[in-house]
Amino acid sequence: MALPPIRKSAAERAAANMPDYDEALKTLGWGELRKLLDHLPHGALNIAYEAVDRHVAHDRGAHEALRWFGKDGTRRSYTYAELKVETDRFARLLGDMGHGRGVRVFSLLGRVPELYIAAIGTLKAGGVFCPLYSAFGPEPVRARMAIGKAEVLIASPRDYAKKVAPDRAQLPSLRDVLLVGEGGEPCEGVVDLTQALARTPADFTTIATRPEDMALLHFTSGTTGKPKGAVHVHEAVVAHHATGRIALDLHEDDVFWCTADPGWVTGTSYGIIAPLTNGVTMVVDEAEFDAGRWYAMLEREQVTVWYTAPTAIRLLMKAGAELAHARDLSRLRFMASVGEPLNAEAVQWSHKVFGRPFHDNWWQTETGGIMIANFASMDVMPGSMGKPLPGVEAAIVDTSGKHLRVIDRAMESGELALRPGWPSMFRAYLDEDERYDRAFRDGWYLSGDIAARDADGYYWFVGRADDLIKSSGHLIGPFEVESALVEHPAVAEAAVIGIPDERAGEIVKAFVTLHTGYEPDDALRKQIMGHARAKLGAAIAPRQIEFRDTLPRTRSGKIMRRLLKARELGLPEGDTSTLEGSP
To answer: Which cellular components does GO assign to this protein (predicted)?
Structure first.
């Protein structure tokens, strides 16, 4: 049964950047949203100019842009004017090293200031920026650099020595390596970035790139085969800026914290570009998740807008509400979640603990930016992804026939599809035209996600198309079952898969982790199973439950159901390079 909506007050609606969703649908389109940016002369558009330079041009150079905290507690701050100088210097360095427009710059850095400077500086120079997660092992790093034809790499000395140097001969396009930190040995093709920048003047004019010029390369793993390189262009900044303003409700005086690593698309689109184009102060923490540290950061830095992942939210729930109640979080006015669906219990929990709910939203690497969201002015339906952004045409479609059929009936499941044309839509899978073409059909982009839309226009996630379970004629979405399981007080996290059964075709098997204080035994297993049957009915509830200490997940936090299924059935595991803890 759906939980009651969390209503927004008239004051909350009035204060939002988009105070009336229905009115915005009539008046806001991509043409209007493009006007929010400055653009360069003669139809040129450059993400870096919109993110940094234009704020200096509009006399906001003294506003703090980046507030960085190291693992050891060190703090560095950059105003927009200072960030312009440092990114100009990096862009000039690329040119002085002989790298021109279109150069492909890969980053293997953690969340350090040099990563953010390099990202903006590369785009200023007309280059292509490709962030890699710094915890990747040698093989996923080499594979992505080879596919992307990396020409410049920015890395710590340790990561370069362990993950790239031994295989550098297999990367013929790699010309230069820029090392950040102590311990490196500069040699031919390897330079100390700090020393090189110290010798480089901050004298650079941002390249007048065209809207369709390649700007970003993001890798995403498929269930099988090699990683896919999703190509994004400078026009994507229109969507980054608009969604930051509308879906995350960013105002110029906000202190914004996106906890995602820039190695993932969220950490680039909303950890770099969207906050900077909207002129906010963005907080960056080099350290990994720690509940106490996070709450201290929210309080001390007076964060007003917070964007994080369901995995982190569940870990905060597990840590207990007392940690949050011990802090003054009164400045926090908007919280959003992305990465995987946010279950209704987590939305209710946040509303109770913080006095406001997490606002779930939906998008993919391929969409480049938020497509569906719970907006600041809109009532939140716990468990729902929200409604499409103005300018985004979404539909639920039946793909079983020769041609797609748009499903109009409320809450009938089908594949979530988008009408192409939004600015941040990926333009290609790098060098894989056929793979790209398969993502489109009958004038729609097919997301691979199964969803439903209710009578009020809210979208609800059901599951990935390849995760659906078919049992005794029932089509079961994993997320529905997992959401019911985590409502049990003992269950911290859950993942469900279908396993073969002679009579039913497939039955539901659940893997669960427990909150501290609960012991895994048969009595608890039966109790959880009974809870699920009471919530879902015997046809949908799990027939088997297995306790686990941990669940396999990607480094961005998504639980890998396909990996659980492959291991359960002895099937090939496919691409596991993004698996948390992989070498």
So the answer is: cytosol
- Of 215, 207, 213, nearest to 95 by C-alpha is 207
> Token digits for 289?
């998740």
What does the block give as tokens for 127? 């280059």
Q: 129, 135, 126, 119: which is closest to 151 by C-alpha? A: 129
Evaluate whether 8 touches 379 at the Cβ level (below 8 Å): yes
Using DSSP, state whether 95 is helix, strand or coil.
Answer: helix
Q: Measure CA 408 to chain center.
A: 29
* Residue/partner pairs of 515-518 with CB below 8 Å, 24 or more apart: 515/318, 515/489, 515/490, 515/491, 516/318, 518/490
Domains of the chain as residue ranges with CATH: 10-391 (3.40.50.12780), 468-569 (3.30.300.30)
Helix/strand/coil for 413: coil
291-316: per-residue pLDDT in tens?
999 999 999 999 999 999 988 998 89
The reported pTM is 0.86
Question: Coil, strand, or helix at residue 62?
Answer: coil
Joined tokens for residue 207: 């390249």
DSSP codes, 149-174:
T-SEEEE-HHHIIIIIGGGGGG-TT-
Residues near 434 by Cβ (< 8 Å), separated by ≥ 6? Answer: none
Contact 369, 278 (CB under 8 A): no
Question: CA-CA distances (angstroms) from residue 156 to 94, 134, 181?
Answer: 18, 9, 6
Q: Measure the N-to-C terminal CA separation of the chain; round to a whole number of Å.
A: 42
Q: CA of 1: how far to CAs of 217, 384, 414, 483, 537, in Å?
A: 41, 13, 20, 12, 12
Please give the helix or strand (H or E) that residue 266 lies within, else none.
helix 265-268
pLDDT tens across 230-285, in order? Answer: 999 999 999 999 999 999 999 999 999 999 999 889 999 999 999 999 999 999 99
